[in-house]
Structure formats: structure tokens, C-alpha cells
Amino acid sequence: MKIEVKDVCKSFHKKQVLDNVNYTFISGNIYGLSGINGIGKSVLLKIICGLYKPSSGCVLYDGVKINQDLVIKSNVRALIDTPYFFPELTGFENLKVLSKITNKINDDDINKALDIVNLTREKDKLYGDYSLGMKQKLGIAQVIMENPEVIILDEPFNGIDSESILKIEEYLKEMKKNNKIIIITSHIANSLEKLCDTIYKIG
Predict the structure, then answer these.
(1) Global pTM value
(2) At what angle do helices 107-116 and 132-144 cross, to 10 degrees?
(3) Which of 55, 69, 73, 115 has CA 20 to 30 A from 167's CA?
(4) pLDDT tens, position by position, 136-168
């Protein structure tokens, strides 16, 4: 798969956030988007997902334009901004509810995703009692549990312990070998260098 961001601009209330952005993402690679907070990384990711329309320019998936109808592609999963789940349900129950939307996976797949993010011990704990790091890990589990072709993670390691970060990074490296496109943002460039094949700097 190839994702092409072509001449993308985005403005909100006459304030330009993205100006003529051109990037290419190809299967089998991990890409980093680097830039200070507020520079437009999350906005770009939402445009790639089809959640925002660009003010001008376009995004192509294998040569086909998306985001005209603001429909997120079924083979794309993303963690952008703060994840939200039902506080009265456990971590596992939240993922189970989401899995029923597509009915593509079973309980074993959910448990595998929870193990990858080091959340197995807390899977039966209420989401409302989760720490920031646990919430972040559940958000990542939600992204990966259906084995999507495109994995998008916006500042994914906020609040996560170093042991879990290493485990998630190893998983992402394996997914790269399985011909996925993985896009990660960070405002700390050094955090991307050891993981990413290509880093695009915004701003």
C-alpha cells in the first residue's frame, strides 16, 4: 500500500495550520512525524484518516482519493488525542464492545493485544480506575487488536512505563516486517530515531 499526502493545506478560522504538505508512506516502513506541540501533527493524522477535510490538496490511498466523504478507511486504525472508553466497563469489556462493530476478531485476539501493551493484569479493572499510562495502553490495544494495514499513533507513549514501551516498540518492528504502514508522532525527535525508518519534520 502507498499513502500519498499531496499539497495538503488546512486552515481553521483563517488560521493556517498546515501549508502545502507532501509526504509519502509505503508498506513495510515505520514513519515518524516530528515537530513541536501545536504545529499540526494531529491535524495531519486526522486528514490522513479522513476525519478532517483538507482546505486544499488531497490524500491518496493507492492512487484513490479519500476524505471527500470523511469516512475512515476500514484497514486504518488510529490513536489520536486522548483515548476515551466507558468508565463503568473493564479494559477487556471496552475492547469487546468495540470489536463487535466489525466482528472480525475474538476474545483471544483481544487478549493478545492486551498482552502486547502489558495490560493483561489490569484487563478486568474498571477503566474509570485506570491511570494515564493504562488508558494510553488500552488505546494502543484498540488500534492493534484487529491487525490493520495502517497503524497511526499520536504521541503514543505518554505516561507509559519503559518496560511496556520496549514491548510495544518490538511489536511495531514485527508489524513492519508484515508489510504494515506505521505512522508515529512525537514532539521529541530523539524518541523516534531508534524506531523509525523515515522521519518527516513538520514546521
Answers:
(1) 0.93
(2) 130
(3) 73
(4) 999 999 999 999 999 999 999 989 999 999 999
